[in-house]
Amino acid sequence: MNANVGGIDKILRIVAGLVLIALAIMGIGAPWTWIGVVPLATGLMGWCPAYSIFGLNTCPMKKA
């Protein structure tokens, strides 16, 4: 698992995940808002399986 989520993408995933989970806890829009666990987890791990499938990468490459 190489990192394929970086920078702003990672921050947006974490924020969106936290907002959706907060809405679920408050009972607004539940139960679908529990899907916020997915962007939160991918943002924290820095790896997204969908990005791997489609060959996307927002993580900056290190130059040797």
Describe this structure as you would to a colleague:
The protein has 64 residues and is mostly helical. The protein has one domain (7-54). The chain is built from three helices and no strands. The model has no long low-confidence stretch (mean pLDDT 92).
How would you summarize this macromolecular structure in one to three sentences?
By secondary structure, this protein is mainly α. The chain is 55% helix and 0% strand.
Defining key terms:
64 residues; mainly alpha; 3 helices; elongated
Element-level helix/strand string: HHH
Outline the low-pLDDT stretches: none
The total number of structural domains is 1
State the share of residues found in helices, binned by percent: 40-55%
Q: Which value, in Å, is the CA radius of gyration?
A: 13 Å
Question: What sort of overall outline do the alpha carbons produce when their principal axes are compared?
Answer: elongated
Q: Note the gap between the termini.
A: 20 Å
Main β-sheet, in a few words? none
Mean pLDDT equals 92
Strand content range: under 5%
Number of helices: 3
Number of strands: 0
Quickly give the structural class: mainly alpha
